[in-house]
Design brief:
Helices cover 63% and strands 10% of the residues. By secondary structure, the protein is α/β, with parallel strands linked by helices. A six-stranded mixed β-sheet has the order 6-9-10-3-11-12. Helix 6 packs parallel to helix 10.
Length: 618
């Protein structure tokens, strides 16, 4: 763990080396000053030699100034080294997270990753600064002071040796017990952050269901656990101070009593005793500093383990030795594909899936909740790898492609649409960073987004708030579709990406796809049969298996699941009475026609009601 973290010191090695050098100079000078003070007392003040006093005093002043300069430089170098290490660690972690596959991300919670990038790295930063500064100064100060004590009085030095042994035993006991609590505490911080993140993200739902009291109770429980573990750890850590003070005062009392007797007996000079008092303070303060460093290092060890866990995590998806750098076309083939999320699990979410799609075809995917529709399409751009069998795009196994090349040619609009803070143009250029205004507008026209964008105050320069909170669900979906279209991909996957738009807009989007991107292979996961019934082929999934493949008419005749879903949606659309439709039409100011044709409003109502009969996503 230590070696892994230190490998990220990088360009701050010079600062890391200069810090202990400056600290060493500062410590040596501070240790020599009490010895010179003893010389002033014994050889100057006691003999009345003021010239000697002034001469040695000037040397002491120069040494004090030099010690101060070394201390200032040490602080500066230590700050640069520790903050630099923290910066490099965060960058390394963030870069590694960007390389994670979905399988890797599933191992860590979002809140846990945030805690590791912030709190844990800060703990390591503070500990590193202590190591290269305090953990150098304190041992050196203690060793040099002990040498001086032995030089001045070997007998009295035994007092400090006994104190050292006693404090070492206490520190070992405290640190070994506290480490376990700190490890649990940081895990609990993850849980607390996850609770806060979940609550803030879903605050509208919380308020809509009046669940503030329930959420407050859960937060209170998590917060109390953090408090409890903190108290348990601190109860052990605070033992350092009283034990240290007891040791310091005991040493001073013994030193005063025995030293005074030695002066009376003529075995020690007054100056030597005064120097011993100074050295005793230096020794015991060094011990106190070491105990504080041990506390920080204990916390840092727990944080270091968590940081290294992220750094050591390797993406389960990697390029081969000679990856293919181009995708021939948008053809797709699943050959006896099975998939499970974890290798140790026996449960397969996809089993023996086999089908082929020609380039340019439009394919619909239907299935109930838990039928693994989303999982199926996520294998195409290698968001996951198939456990068994192979997935081919453009006639080549997806594992043969360069990942970036493959994902640039396979555009995917995920089930959960995400927009980022920035203008509409900036969000759309995620699909193509150098896209022109004309390309952006064309993609938005295809996605039926241009009209509502033009009505916004700043048009395409309108600022999107974090998470897209200032646009509706349907607008967000259309912007995400436009973002995918800008890539001009060979394969376009829509994972239930038109569920929040009305049926008319949905139809216009599909019409634009058919007319404007006929060579692009389109896979559409939908809940409405009306969204996929005109597709070249429709795949029906049931519990991770392909239950049927065919056109709308073929599946109506041969596939029971598809027929049941179709009939239930048709029934749902028919249940709205003619009178209620008439009332709504008259309220809108549009009279019914006498021709006997069903009004457009009734058609929309029929299609919207049909949405209620097919379950959610996989």
């Amino acid at each position: 763990m230590v070696k892994k973290i230190l490998s990220h010191v990088g360009e701050f090695k010079k600062d890391s080396l200069l810090t202990p050098l400056c600290v060493s100079g500062e410590t040596v000078l501070e240790v020599l000053i009490p010895l010179m003070m003893a010389a002033i007392i014994d050889n100057g003040l006691n003999t009345g030699n003021m010239k000697y006093v002034f001469g040695v005093g000037l040397v002491m002043l120069a040494m004090a100034m030099a010690s101060l300069a070394c201390g200032v430089l040490a602080g500066r170098y230590a700050s640069r080294a520790s903050t630099g290490l923290a910066r490099n660690l965060r960058k390394a972690m963030y870069d590694n997270i960007q390389e994670f596959s979905f399988a890797n991300i599933d191992k860590f919670s979002t809140a846990g990753l945030i805690t590791r990038l912030t709190t844990d790295v800060t703990n390591i930063q503070n500990a590193y600064q202590m190591i290269i500064r305090m953990c150098v100064r304190s041992p050196l100060m203690m060793i040099f002071s002990m040498i001086m004590c032995v030089y001045l009085s070997p007998k009295l030095s035994v007092i400090f040796l006994v104190a050292l042994v006693f404090l070492s035993i206490v520190l070992y006991f405290v640190m070994t017990r506290a480490h376990g609590y700190f490890k649990k505490l940081f895990h609990q911080y993850d849980e607390l952050n996850a609770r806060v993140q979940e609550n803030v993200t879903a605050i509208r739902t919380v308020k809509a269901y009046v669940r503030e009291d329930f959420e407050n109770k859960k937060f209170k429980e998590q917060s109390h656990m953090v408090y409890y573990l903190s108290v348990c750890a601190e109860k052990l850590v605070v033992m350092n101070m009283p034990v240290m003070q007891f040791t310091v005062y005991t040493c001073i009392l013994l030193l005063s009593w025995l030293g005074a007797r030695m002066i009376v007996a003529g075995d020690m000079t007054t100056g030597a005793l005064m120097s011993l008092f100074t050295y005793s303070t230096q020794i015991l303060s060094s011990l106190m500093m070491i105990s504080m460093a041990f506390v920080m290092l204990t916390m840092a060890k727990s944080s270091g383990d968590r940081v290294v866990e992220v750094l050591d995590e390797k993406s389960s998806l990697t390029n081969g030795e000679a990856p293919v750098m181009s995708v021939a076309d948008g053809s797709i083939e699943f050959d006896n594909v099975s998939f499970r999320y974890n290798e140790g699990e026996n449960k397969e979410v996809l089993r023996n899936v086999t089908f082929s799609i020609r380039s340019g075809q439009t394919i619909g995917v239907l299935g109930g909740t838990g039928s693994s529709k989303s999982t199926l399409v996520q294998l195409i751009p290698r968001l996951y790898d198939a456990t068994e069998g192979s997935v081919k795009v453009g006639g080549r196994d997806v594992r043969e492609y360069d990942l970036e090349t493959l994902r640039n040619e396979v555009a995917m609009v995920l089930q959960k649409n995400e927009l980022f803070s920035g203008t509409i143009k900036e969000n759309l250029r995620w699909g193509k960073k150098d896209a022109t205004d004309e390309e952006i507008e064309l993609a938005c026209r295809h996605a039926q987004a241009h009209e509502f964008i033009e009505k916004m105050p700043d048009g395409y320069d309108t600022y999107i708030e974090q998470g897209g909170t200032n646009v509706s669900g349907g607008q967000k979906q259309r912007l995400c579709i436009a973002r995918a279209l800008i890539k001009k991909p060979k394969v376009l996957i829509l994972d239930d990406s038109t569920s929040a738009v009305d049926t008319r807009t949905d139809a216009l989007i599909r019409q634009a796809f058919a007319q404007d991107i006929p060579d692009t292979t389109k896979l559409i996961i939908a809940q409405r049969i009306s969204s996929v019934q005109e597709a070249d082929q429709i795949i029906v999934l049931n519990h991770g298996r392909v239950n049927g493949i065919g056109t709308h008419e073929e599946l109506l005749q041969k596939n029971e699941i598809y027929r049941d879903v179709y009939q239930s949606q048709q029934k749902g659309g028919a249940e709205e009475s003619a009178e209620s439709v008439k009332d709504r039409v008259e309220e809108s100011g549009t009279p019914l026609k006498d021709s006997g044709e069903e009004p457009v409003q009734n058609q929309g109502a029929r299609e919207n009601l049909s949405d209620l009969n097919l379950g959610g996503e996989a």
